[in-house]
Amino acid sequence: MTVSFVLPEVTPVETINWAEIPSPAFVLDESRLRRNLALISQVQRESGAQIIVAFKGFAMWSTFGLLREYGITGATASSLNEARLAYEEMKGEVHVYAPAYSDEDFPRILELADHLVFNSFTQWVRFRPQVEAARAAGRTVHVGIRVNHEYGEVDTDLYNPAGPFSRLGVTRREFREDLLEGVDGLHFHSLCENDSSTLERTLVAFEEKFGEFLPRMKWVNFGGGHLMTRAGYDLDRLIRVVRDFKARHNLHVILEPGSAFGWQTGWLVSSVLDVVHNVKDAAVLDVSVSAHMPDVLEMPYRPRILGAGDPPEQGQHREDDGTLAASGHPYIVGGTTCLAGDVIGEYIFAQELQPGDRVVFDDMIHYTMVKTTFFNGVKHPDIGILHVDGNYERVRAFGYEEFKAKLS
User: Fold this and answer.
1) What is the CATH number of the domain that holds 163?
2) What is the pLDDT of residues 80-106, one digit of tens each?
3) CA–CA distance from 53 to each of 82, 227, 241 (Å)?
4) Residue 216 has what DSSP assignment?
């Protein structure tokens, strides 16, 4: 089976006038988001799975109208705040999972949620009376248990839910078949920007550990981490794997990617504030790595800068003053907080950098805006949309009041 995907064109990067965009700013490109949504929508149709958006990776609510336009009618939340955002702004099915629910938050979460996933049977027993009361009053509330099949292909331990001694999900040896009354679904999540081949191997482990309980279920949630919008992702395999699973078990299948929605849909536009020389040149930007790009330090990973190249390989010749012997201008790129480690690394620029020059970081929409902080009180980037007609819209600006509101 080979599926032909017809996707809309995107705005060429070289046609964008970065100088006209106020700095700093997270800029989502509508044409690139539409391209992702067209692909995700077609996968949803061809596979028969329900695809919902995971707010932990993409929660730009000013775009939710576009998501609904492409048939994305649900969201998954990990907290009461995200559940409210799903209910009030996404206006579709609200799926909620959290490692634990508090007595204070759970009643309101229950009012909002269509699907509730519990991380342990202890939590299910604790809150089951409230769920049963809601059902008795006429509410349809689907309940799932998150399971841990103890199989993962995630290289970074920080993002591996199936790693040793994980607190996330119920392992087979701790699974309580006697407490399944009222439970109609199972949920697993162990992928992190993986391909569909990883999902296929993961399903083997899942079915080996928990397949005996599937006849009692109505649905299975495959979690997130399905990076289906990445170039080279095997979409045909994904569609086949989901179809085959549905055929084997006659169950509703849910996928909840976050990165796939925001993947390669926009940028973080910054400006050079100063160039400091200490053997090597360092460009100080009006953004912060630690406050605005925390995954660069947590993952860690190295973001691409438009128009800039990688530093020389280790051992490549340098002059005595530390500059490259080859053409190009090397700069250590860092942020504007007082944290010494607020640095991304060294990049090679075609031209010397001057204060006011734009430095544009690529692929800065997914798992970036959702993690920003107001550390040091540095200016928080705007949030804007570059529309398909070429017009730029600033949809959110942040100032002193937002910074103050996080303190007391």
Assistant:
1) 3.20.20.10
2) 999 999 999 999 999 999 999 999 999
3) 12, 12, 20
4) G
